[in-house]
Amino acid sequence: MDTAAESIEALSHESRRFPPPAEFAARANAQPGIYEEAERDFEAFWASWARKLEWSKPFTRVLEWNEPFARWFGDGELNASVNCLDRHVRAGRGGRIAYYYEGEPGDRRAITYAELLRDVCRFANGLRKLGIKKGDRVAIYMPMIPELPVAMLACARIGAPHSVIFGGFSPDSIVDRVNDGACVALITADAGWRRGNKVPLKRNCDIAMEHTPSIKHCIVAKRIGDPVLMHERRDLWWDEVIDGQPDTCEPETMNAEDLLFLLYTSGTTAKPKGIKHTTGGYLTHVTATHHLVFDLKPEEDVYWCAADIGWVTGHSYIVYGPLANGATSVIYEGTPDFPDKDRLWQIVERYKVSILYTAPTAIRTFMKWGDEYPRRHDLSTLRLLGSVGEPINPEAWMWYREHIGGDRCPVVDTWWQTETGGIMISPLPGISHTPPGSATRPLPGIFADIVNDRGESVPLGGGGYAVLTRPWPGMLRGIYGDDERYRQTYWSKFPHKYLAGDGCRRDTDGNYWFMGRIDDVMNVSGHRISTTEVESALVDHHRVAEAAVCGKLDDVTGQAIYAFVSLRGGEIGSPQLADELREHVAEKLGKFTRPKFVTFTQELPKTRSGKIMRRLLRDVAEGRTLGDTTTLADSSVVEELKERAKIEVTQEE
Ligand code: WTA
Q1: For residues 30 and 478, what is the distance between their CA atoms, to the nearest angstrom?
Q2: Is the backbone of residue 182 left (phi > 0), alpha (psi -120 to 50) or beta?
Q3: Which end of the chain has fewer CB atoms < 10 Å from its terminal CB, N or C?
Q4: Which H or E element spans position 292?
Q5: What is the three-class DSSP state of 414?
Q6: pLDDT score of 120 more than 70
Q7: Whose CA is nearest to atom 13 of ligand 1?
C-alpha cells in the first residue's frame, strides 16, 4: 500500500489572485529579479546577506556541506548581540525605540536601542560574575516581559547558549528540557499575567529544580511582586544580579558555527528534540527574511509579531531578526481577550502598528468573535499582514485581508519550522500574486520540492511530501546530543532531501499549498483527503468559526471523517445544521468528503501555542481514554468535548 501523502487529492480549486498594490510594489525591499539572482548562485546570494552583518573576523568560506551537517560562513567570527544592539547605537540610532512594551494589566514602557544595550550589558556582566561562561547552557522560563529578550541577548553576548522554555509549560517539561541541556542556570520571574490570572513561574521552577541537579543559580525577575520562596545561595533577584554592574560589557567572540541557542520541539516520541541553532547562518537567515518578507522600513514601520518569544517565531521574528534590522517592535504580555476582545486592535491603534504577524488559529478566533471588535479601532496604519504556524484556510485569509487589512494590505502566509530557523516558503509582498491560503513559493536562495513515496518530484498539480533539497543558512545543525535521531528524523526517508514532515500540493502555477502534517491525512474509501481541506470547507460556511477534522476508524471505508465544529457568536449547533454542513462540504469538495460525524463544541482543544490537538480529538472520536493532556491550554475543553461526543454527536444515516 502506498502512503498517505503520495496522492493527496487536491480537491478545491482557488483561482483568486491578489497582486501587490502598485505603490507597495514600487517601494518594496524585494524587487523582481531577486529569484533569478539567488538561482544563479545561491551561496553568493546568502554570502551577500551575511556581509551586511558585522563580523569581527570576516568569513572567507560560505558553505561546507557534509550531509546532513552544514557549516555556513565557518571561518567567520561575530557576536549576535553586537549585531542586534551595538551596531545601531554606534551608528547614531541609539535613541530609536527597539520595543514598545505593554503588560497585560496595561503598564507600558518604551525601550530604546541604547537602553536595551545597557540593560543587556549589565545583565551579561552579572551572569559572568556568577561564573557563567562561553558554552554553558542557560534555561529561560519567563513571561513576555522586556527582561526576556534582555536575558537572551545577554546570554548571546557572553556566548552561553540559551534554551528558552515557553512560560506555559509545566514543571515536568522544565525538568526534561533543563536536564537534556544540562543547563547551569535558570532565569525566571516571580509570576506572569495571563487573562487576569497569575501564572506561578517561580513556583513551577521550584518544583522542577528538585530534579535538575545541573542548575547552580536561579535568577528571578520581579514582575508581579508576589512573595516567592528564595532558596539561599541558589536563588537571586534580577536586581541583585545587575546591581553595581557597568553599562558596558565586552562581547564574547563567537565562531559563526558556535551554538546560539537550543529550542525544544516535540517529535513523534515523548522525548522532545533540542534543536540546535548556531550564530552566523541563523542570524543571516532571519535578518534577510525579516527584511524581505516583512518589507521592513526601520525608520517608518512599527512591527508587531504577536507570537510568544518562547516559540521559534518569537526567537526569530521578535528578537533576532527585527533587532538585527533595527526595527521598532511591539511586545505584548497577555491574551487578546483581556480585558476585552479588542485588545490587539487597541494596541495596533495605540502604537500605529504597520506590520502585523500572527497565527491562523488567532485569526479564526477573531472571526468567531466578530468584526465589531476590529471595527472599534483605527487600523489604517497597517500595510502588511503575516500568518504562520498552520495552514491558513482561504476563508480566514480573506477575513484577515478584509477586516484587519482593510483590503489594501498584502498578506504573507509564511511556512517554516523550528528546525528551519527562519521563513522558507512565503510570498514576497511586493512581487507575489498571492492566492488566498497559499504560502506560494520558496524564497530566493531556498530550494524545496514535493515528492512522492519514492522520492520522485511530483509534477505541478500534484501533492506529496514537502522536502528541502539544498542546505540553507538558518537550518538546524542537529538535535542536541543525538546526531542519530537527527539523521533518522529528517534525512533517512529520501536520500539527500530534508523531510519536513508536512504534506503539500502544488497548483499548476507552482504555488505551494501546505496541508498539515503528513499524519493528518485521512484515507476514506481509498481517497486521500487532507484534514485541512475539509476544515477549510467547513470554515467556509458562514456560521462556522473553527473546525478540526480527524479520521475515525471505519469498518467499511477505512476511515470516516469526524468533524469538531465551533460556531460563530457562540451559537449552539443542531442536527439540521450538521446536515447543512455536510452538504456544504460535499458541495465544496465532493460527496466522499462529507463528514460522517459532526460534534459541535464551544472550544477546540489547543496547545498553549495554539495548535489544535488532533491526537486528543482522535481519542475522543475513537472513544478511547485520553492520552497525555498536559500540554493543553485549557483542560476543561476536553471534558466538555467528551461529554458532547457521547450525547450530541450527530451521525449521518
Ligand atoms: C506548520 C513554526 C502551513 C507545519 C514556525 C510545520 C505551517 C510546523 C505554516 C512547524 C504555514 C508552520 N502553513 N503549515 N504557513 N507554518 N506550519 O516548529 O506543519 O512550531 O511543520 O514552527 O507548523 O511548527 P513550529
Answers
A1: 31
A2: left
A3: C
A4: helix 280-293
A5: strand
A6: yes
A7: 391
Which of 390, 479, 612 maximizes ligand 1 atoms within 8 Å of its Cβ, making it the mutation to test the pocket? 390
Q: How far is CA 298 from CA 37, 196, 290, 306, in A?
A: 24, 33, 11, 18
Give the atom of ligand 1 at the shortest distance from the alpha carbon of 609.
20
Do residues 429 and 293 make contact, with C-beta atoms less than 8 angstroms apart? Answer: yes
Asked if residue 589 has pLDDT above 90, the reply is no
| SS3 state of residue 317 | helix
502 Cβ inside 6 Å of ligand 1: yes
179 CB less than 6 Å from ligand 1?
A: no
Q: Which band of pLDDT confidence, cut at 50, 70 and 90, is reported for residue 631?
A: low
Give dist(CA 506, CA 14) in Å, integer.
12
Best CA proximity match to 295, nearest among 29, 57, 640: 29
For the chain, helix, strand, coil in percent to 5 are 35, 25, 40
pLDDT value of residue 448: 98
For residue 146, give the amino acid letter. Answer: P
Sole residue written with cell 546530543: 481
Q: Which of 316, 357, 416, 450 to mutate to test the pocket of ligand 1 (most atoms within 8 A of CB)?
A: 416
DSSP one-letter code for 425? B
- Respond yes or no on whether the N-terminal peptide bond of residue 200 is cis (omega within 30° of 0): no
Phi and psi at residue 553, in whole multiples of 5°?
Answer: -55, 140
* Residue in this structure with the C-alpha cell 522600513, named with its chain if needed: 297
DSSP string, 352-379: T--EEEE-HHHHHHHHHH-THHHHTS--
DSSP-assigned states of every residue in 67-134? TTEEEESTT-EE-HHIIIIIHHIIIIITTSEEEEEE-TTS-EEEEEHHHHHHHHHHHHHHHHHTT--T
Measured between alpha carbons, how far is residue 447 from residues 68, 383, 505, 647 in Å?
15, 28, 16, 49
Task: Look at ligand 1, atom 11, and give the residue with the nearest C-alpha.
Answer: 415
Question: DSSP assignment of 622-651, as one string?
Answer: HTPPP---TTBS-THHHHHHHHHHHHT-EE
Give 171 Cα–ligand 1 centroid separation in angstroms: 26
pLDDT score recorded for residue 14: 83
Q: Which of 358, 385, 417, 479 to mutate to test the pocket of ligand 1 (most atoms within 8 A of CB)?
A: 417
How far does CA 508 lie from the centroid of its chain? 28
Residue type present at position 577 = L
Highest mean pLDDT among 54-58, 195-199, 458-462, 552-556: 54-58
User: In the prediction, which pLDDT does 229 show?
Assistant: 97
Nearest atom of ligand 1 to the alpha carbon of 311: 20
Q: Which contiguous run of DSSP H or E holds residue 251?
A: none
- pLDDT mean across residues, the chain: 92
CA of 514, closest atom in ligand 1: 3
458: its cell numbers: 511530483
